Amino acid sequence: MTDQIGVNSLPELSLAEVLTHAGGPDPVPALLEPAGAVLVRDAGVAGAPALAALAGRLGLRAVDQTEPFAARRDLGDGVWSQPAWPATAPMCMHHELGWQREPPPYLLVSCLRAPATGGRTGVADGRAVLPLLPDALVRRAARHGWILVRRYAAGLIGMSWQEAFPDMDVAAVEAYAAGEGIDLSWGPDHLLTRRTRPALRRTGQDGVLAWSNLLAFCSEWTMDPAVRTYLITALGRAGLPFETSFGDGSPFTAADVEAVNAAYDRVSAHVTWRAGDVLVLDNIRAAHSSEPFTGSREMAVLHAAPAVPR
Ligand SMILES: [Fe+2]
């Protein structure tokens, strides 16, 4: 396939070029319109303060990361480390906090220390993914949305509810869940959550529909097969940290996961990181992934929204 901007390759800009865009009051939508993501090469971002400052110059502010996928270290200034995740394991395509009613609209990802090998970040434009998916799958997802069942429990794969909701007590978690439209079921040592979300979302300045969900990312079929089998054998379905289905309750199958990942593969661009680089993403439109790496890669992430609400 020939590389096109937004399909297999990303626009790359220098910091000076990006800051030219920063002249207006709300520069990011125009910056991201061509592909849903832009790589700012050699932006000179060496830490959290510099990343937060760049976000500010682009008219963005940091937003909270309630209910993360995995624990991150707080680097200050609204900036977080990469998630606690084995360097040897890939992380497949996802939208950050894509289970929220309104996920963070933007994401700034910066490389503080490049890996020795591997560790590329994949980026896939959900607008380009959508027409590549089987019609029946898209119709069902568009009509019914998707359901996420997430279990929080200490000692299993995943997080305890106390880790996912630090500084929150039971009442605060219940208030958060009510605001997010999440059904809760408390057990003696676990919390079961269930929510329905749209599978397609309108993106960008013109509201173009994009595939934007975590149906595949949170599917039990995305887990390492040996781990999945072990959890189900040892603990039953309650051992699975995540399960997804279509919003009408019909299963999102292993074949569906394969179809979605094949579409992602066809349109993915890959960032080979250098220290100081910053990737600016439309987090609703573009999914991102991570490859295994060696060495001591260090990333910093800022979940962002417009500083002045649109
Ligand atoms: Fe991520």
From TrEMBL:
Keyword Iron attributed: yes
Cofactor: Fe(2+)
GO MF annotation, one: dioxygenase activity
Domain of life the protein comes from: Bacteria
UniProt entry keywords in alphabetical sequence: Antibiotic biosynthesis, Dioxygenase, Iron, Oxidoreductase
The keyword Electron transport is assigned to this record: no
Domain TauD/TfdA-like: 28-301
GO biological process: antibiotic biosynthetic process
Gene3D superfamilies: Clavaminate synthase-like
Pfam families recorded: TauD
Name of this protein: Taurine catabolism dioxygenase TauD, TfdA family
Organism: Micromonospora sediminicola
